Amino acid sequence: MKKIVRAIDAFNETTGRYFALLILPLIFVVMYEVIARKIFHSPTSWGFELTIYIYGAHFMLGMAYTMLKDRHVRIDVIAMQLPKRVQLWLRIITFVIIFIPFVGALTYAAIVFAAESWATLEHSSTAWRPPIYPVKTIMPVALILLLFQGISNFIKDIYRLKGADL
Prior knowledge:
The chain is mainly α and 166 residues long.
């Protein structure tokens, strides 16, 4: 079990660091579009759409890394006042009752969504008309990574509950 947890954590650590680099092409595209629009009065037909795709990929693919680092936004004003053992139990219960059904259903829906897009080789309806099936594939990939990281965190919480640590 420890090897699985370490492998998931290492994979999400490594991929998360690479996915964070998506901010660089995003900055370049935004700067290019702003310069083209404001200085040369010649906006591109692709800049805004590409910005959305890159930012969407950056956001989605960063979810598992964010969960690994325990940086998701949450409101735990009450939970933080409880003993550590109760906090662990709450995380375990909410994982089983909320996280698994929600992320599981979302992953399934994203797989169907991407598969339908691949089946039709879907393209955008804008003037630029890029293929969007690769972009839609990012959603199930990101959700699968998030699901695996959730399982890793769940296993670590079980170990902590038993008094052991990974």
